[in-house]
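Q: Give me the 3D complex with zinc ion.
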Amino acid sequence: MPHRNNPEEEEYFARLDAEKKAALRKRLNVEHAAQAAEERKERHFMHCGKCGGPMAPKLFKGVEVDVCGDCGAVLLDPGELEQLAGEESHGLENLAAFFGLSKDD
Ligand SMILES: [Zn+2]
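A: Here is the predicted complex, encoded as structure tokens.
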């Protein structure tokens, strides 16, 4: 480590060091979040959110929904609720909009 006496120089290098550390910390946080999301997806993919049982795709009224083999819970992908509700059921569309499942998103 070179010896420095100039306070402005010291301040400059300290600031540079802090900025580098902050950038590295930010990058590691982003990488960690992405890795955690990947692990979470791997752990829960096609598993029931209620009982943890295996989900299997099943055709229902022309829509492929995922059904839990253990408890029978049904998982719908975005847009599938509207597909199943059809044109005549505005109540369900309103319900879908309420839950943020609108196709307009
Ligand atoms: Zn289940």
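A quick observation: The longest strand covers residues 55-60.
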